[in-house]
Batch of 2 targets.
Target 1
Amino acid sequence: MLGFVLVALVGLPAPQDTTTVDAPVYTNEAYGVSLPRPFDDWVFEPATDRQTTTVIFLPRDAAASTQLLGALGLTHFDRPVALARVANQRIESTWQRRLGPTFEVLVRDSLTVAGLPAVRVLMSGAMDHVALDVEEYMIARDSDLVLLQFRYPRGLPRDSIAEGYRRVIGGLKIRGSPPVEQALPPAFAESVAMAGVVPAGPWVVAAYEAVVRYDTQAVRADIAVKVDLVNTGTAPADSVALWIWPAFTLDSVRGLSGALALRRRGSVSWVHMAGAVDPQEGASLTVFYQVARGARPYPSPLLGLSASGAYFATGWLPRVEPAVDSAGQPLRQSRPAVTLSFDLPEGWSAVAQGHLSSNATSPGRRRMTWRTGDVVPALSVFALGPYRVIARRDSGVAVSVWLTPDDSLSSAAIDSLAGLVRSAWAFCGRAFGRLPLDEINVAVTDLPDVRGFVGTLLIPHPTQPGSASADSESAPVRLPTFTAVARELARSWWGGSVAAEGPASAWILESFPAWTADAAMGALLGDSLRQRSVREAEETWRTLFQDRDVPLARVPVSAASVGLLRSKGIAAIEAARRAAGDSQFREALLLLAVEHRNDWVSLQDALTAFGADAGTVLRPYLY
């Protein structure tokens, strides 16, 4: 029986002599399983053979040979399903043979689907002369196996197909499964490329040392990163799965003895070491790569390069550890120290996190080095440009404003900006515990809005387009609002020193800073203003997002989810605060931030800290 099940979904074309089911949902009463179709023009073609039901779903009138299809397999064993064994045999006995010499396993991990244990595998190769990627879920319900398969022909837009497949997973119902919501898997392109999925391995990063050289004429950054690794496994390892963001072009990887062999697959490259590294021993790799203006694929507003400046506000460092799981939720990773050295044109400066340890000039070039300090950022960012720095060190934390020649702010405007930063920083320190930082850097960039990171704010150019000379005290400027400053500075705690893992990561990373801005506004300007802002957020959630409402434990970390997280997310936190009581809630939030500094926090950590009463009212928002 097992051998037949393992090949039942591969030997397609679609089932023959069957009745096509043209309906929004396919239901199998015998197994108690139902699932929606991905798109309105898709149909189901079920067939049963040797006690195994196979259901193909594909576009109406399409040929299975195009490989644009999904499949559902249902079968029963005489013993509980051994998921690991099933997954191993499908990979080795079925897919490796069918997908030919280009076969490769991209991801394999465990998760929960419809409240039941499952294994998810992503593979690539070619079938019947069609290059494709295959995503397969093996779900166990005691002695029943539910096998769900999705195919992605590489010649078709992947994002649109993935949207329909997410609908199938999200609507899958299995009789007898626990009433537990699971996070929807991300779009395939995001999970494999953008999110930095690499196969799980024994390696962790101990430290990064990066050198960034910027060329203003070519508008290009050449990057060399020394990555210190440790083998945390139980056996020697001689290869490393290395990921870089797809906007970057990998040039080479070198070890202590010279260049290392590479085998590339998309944004993941397998690096073959010069020799095996024993458990608990270390190794070093130097990764050389570059990015130029107009880099493709995957442009992002968080990466900007121009002849007048640049900013890197995304995951630009190489990774050797998986960043997300099968459900698209962030995974716990190492938090290494980072040293950034910059080789820049004369007159340019770099603004990064930590402290500036060296700053030297030579004919035509400037060299600067920044090192992380006691707070280890979850994300390393920097900005480059012809900056001059103006510091305000009146009281409390010092605020250094880095301006370009086009941002000639008046002294009053700089005082105002520094005052906003100091006020918001002081509130966050009281609410979440003071961070050992004595300086906040504010750098102007071409970003369209304010972005906050540990001890650093990147803001849009504040001078209004077409305004009068900013040397005048009355020059119109576009300084960030207090709400934006408070929200983005709160990311020094939530998402910076305290990173989030697992379900509801997006809620912690986005909603906590947004709620902080409202709380800070109430503390400084009166609680009535805070209450009005909270009511507006709740109204926004119930009106604008009524048709797109998703449980907060399933919301992905993405730009598209920000509106929901800043409305429903704030409503959830306020409900928890009212249930726990203001004093207990604020104490719990403070302890949560302090106890998880330079560490990771999970949804369960938050629910435990808030207490049983708050947890009860939070569950309807989360699940």
Note: Residues 1-7, 179-196, 464-474 have pLDDT under 50 and may be disordered.
Target 2
Amino acid sequence: MGSIMKPEVHCKMLDGGWILLSIRAQENEKFHWLLESLKLKLHVLVYEKKLRKYKTSIHELKRLSDFCSRKGVDLFASDKVLHLYKRMCYRFKRIEQLRDVKNIDFPVQGWTEDPECVLYDYQKYCANIVVHARRFLIGDDMGLGKTPMAIAIILKSWELYNTGSAMIVCPERLQYQWKEEVHKFSTLRKNQVEIMGRRTCRNGTRPNFLTRGKVCKACRLYEACLFDMNTSKQSAADYRDLQIKRARVLVCGYASLRIHEKAFIDRKFTVIIFDEATRLKNMKADTTKAAENIVKLAPLTTTVVPMSGTFIENRIEELYSIMNIIDDRVLGNFCNFKARYLITDYWGNVTGYRNEGPLKEKLDRMLIRRTIDEVWKDRPPITEKVVECPFEKEQDQFYAEAREGVLQDIADLQKAKSVNMANVATLIGYLLQVADTVKSIDPETTIKEHSSKINVLKEMLMEEFPRKAKIVIFSRFSNKVIPYLIKELESLPKEIVGGGILSIVGGVSNKAQDKIILKMRTKKYHRILVCSDAMAYGGNLQFANYIVNFDLPWNPAVLDQRIRRVYRRGQKKSVTVFNMIVPGTVEEHLYQVLAHKRKLFTTFLKESLVQDRPEKKHILRQLISKI
């Protein structure tokens, strides 16, 4: 073989859509020059330790080809590489064509015949794109009906690809709701949709199937359930394995991903839906790693759809984590992503973003997002108001003393050089609880006017709200504030309270939550529902038309999620939101920062995918100066 006159790059196909690069050059200087140039030019370049060579993504082939032609480097690619690249280009071209389609006919085999359960045009548009793309993010605004879209995607995928099994991963409290929605919008039988770990008779003949050793001999599905005929009971682990094998649609919680990771990989579902996919935003969490392994080891024909109305709650890195699950070739590993798009300080903290255009272009190919303003034209009006609740004299004095104590604690931490954001957040949370009620800090207090907010809320219930109105009250302090809030509200006259105050907090079981929501929706004498942020995700509260944010969360996405529980598809009445704040306290400044972040969040998703936004630690620093 003769000497190499020009540098060469040889491309060979690896598993998972990666390209192995072999660099050849006559001189060491040219070899290192070419390698360093590729590191600068290619967005994704990963060192494969086992092979001792670099690999790049199939998405980078065009960029690699352009670089080699400009620099006079010979590029050789195998037939497999070229074939996969042509398929990828065709897929993206097809997606662009589907995006241009306005009036779409999207019949779904297996969809219910109920005339009230129809797909809107924007839902058909999205489902059609996702079915053909197979790996896609749905980031539609909260309340636009992502659940029917997901069910249509499942049914259409089964129809097009002649196979059918699906896994829906969602927060634990939404499992029963998902099962009801699948039965509502599809013709699937009840025994084809199972909730992970729920031990029930598939035929419905026995309510206590597989409980306390009882044998369901009357069930016609007895043999199909594979119940051990020689014993009187079956272990819970065996039953869960059985559910994974037999269910056509399996609904499971995020905790089950890491527990049953191997079983999910072996099952090879044809459609995987991740609802409220922000649960996967932490790339180091075991749940996120399990989800990544399940998708990575699934066939490339598997349809994977993460869904959330708030993909980005604080940082762009959260969206990177979810994007990496559906296709790790687009953004590469985190080192590639950090070097290309993040600006960091000396200590590695993210201070800003760069290369916004290329990043936005990449994400736009695999993400669709519509807002309420775009698709819900006939929506009822919504009004947001600020209710100021100035302190009474005694509570004001208590807050001033608490404020001095917090400042002293922060000064002590700074002196000891042990300040961290968790400590500061705890101290500021202490002041926010005092602003709600003194009793949250000192239950034995003798202060009569312990909460200006509760007094103002009582006046609003007596005078401002109509007698037939349904009201949802949110508070983030489920153990410290909500018990005192409920106790005070129950002292109101019966014509105001009605059948009593209902509440949903983190410790309430899913079944109990469903019963409480059903009471609020169907019983006229139940008017007031008090919730923690456990209810801020996934619930349907369209029966209400007033929302009271008794206190504010750190995150503007959580605040929007609260509002979208009520103001969503199916809401026919005008909605009014009351944000209660105490002027002159840290709470007032928190509201101002949240309003600013909400405005930037909207711009961030609609106009530019990366902008400098105040992170939580920056909020804390600002709040310290305002204490």
Note: The first strand starts at residue 8 and ends at 13.
